[in-house]
Amino acid sequence: MTANESFVKAGLCEQRDHSKAVVFHFNPSTIKIAKRAEYREQPTQAAKQSARPAFLGARAVDLQFSLLLDARVRRRPSVMTEIQQLLDWTNPTQASREGSSPSPPVLMFTWGEFRIGGAGQFVGLLSSVDATCTLFAPNGAPTRAEVALAMKAAPEEPKRTNPSSGGVRAHRGHRVVAGDTLAAIAHHTYGDPGRWRAIAELNGVDDPMRLAAGRRLLLPEHGELGRL
Q1: Which residues have CB under 8 Å from 20's CB, separation 6+?
Q2: Other C-beta atoms within 10 Å of 53: how many?
Q3: Dihedral over Cα of 86, 87, 89, 95: its sign
Q4: Whether residues 142 and 223 fall in one domain
Q5: Domain range for 74
Q6: Using the 8-state DSSP alphabet, how is residue 222 labeled?
Q7: Is residue 62 part of a domain?
Q8: Exposed, middle or buried by CB within 10 Å (0-12, 13-18, 19+), for 82?
């Protein structure tokens, strides 16, 4: 790390309520990214070669990583607050339980320049939490824990309009994280930081250096860059 680089903490937060968050005490040392395609194989009797598998579709991206929680880092008596929050995120939300499709909250995994997909931030559901408490205070409170997490991508569906309605076309989106600038987003998306002006104009951004974390920006298509 150079003197110009700042140390960024990784963390999880709810997509719709960033106040509900777990900031990692130590950043993950490894992250496993997996994506699988499904095929159907149809054996052919007496064939010299097997038939070409039929593509059925692709599964969502899976993210797996481990983290270390240590109460001494945050000067707290226990790590159970963070563990309980992670466990709660595997349960359906109160609002969804009142509807027809109970579902846990959609989460965002953020860590500086770690990006997956066109939107950048990994948006998904927490599929498993495995916490192993390794150190305890004299009163029994766990003060250190190793936690293994698994997430399954749940990307936001783009809002599409009827072409005959004359509405605005759908755009890709980017969820702002702490430290983001329009120039950095433009460089990551288009390979040209100078394209920040097109993003600013499309989203009505007055100050490109001050972006609120959690804001969702629309990204112009390459064909629109010259018109914005």
Answers
A1: 13, 14, 85, 105
A2: 12
A3: negative
A4: no
A5: 7-35+58-156
A6: G
A7: yes
A8: buried
pLDDT (0 to 100) of residue 126: 95
Exposure string (b/e) for 148-178, b if CB count within 10 Å is 16 or more?
ebbbebbbeeeeeeeeeeeeeeebebbbbbe
How far is it, in rounded angstroms, from Cα 29 to Cα 148? 12
- Claim to verify: residue 12 and residue 116 sit in the same structural domain: yes
Confidence of residue 160 (pLDDT cuts 50, 70, 90): very low
Element (H, E) at 131: strand 122-136
Domain assignment present for 49 = no
Q: Is the pLDDT assigned to residue 1 strictly greater than 70? A: no
Q: What is the pTM of this model?
A: 0.64
Question: Is 179 within 8 Å of 226 (Cβ atoms)?
Answer: no
Record the tokens describing residue 138, joined without a space: 């004299």
| 141 domain residue, yes or no | yes
Give the mean model confidence (pLDDT) for residues 185-192. Answer: 82
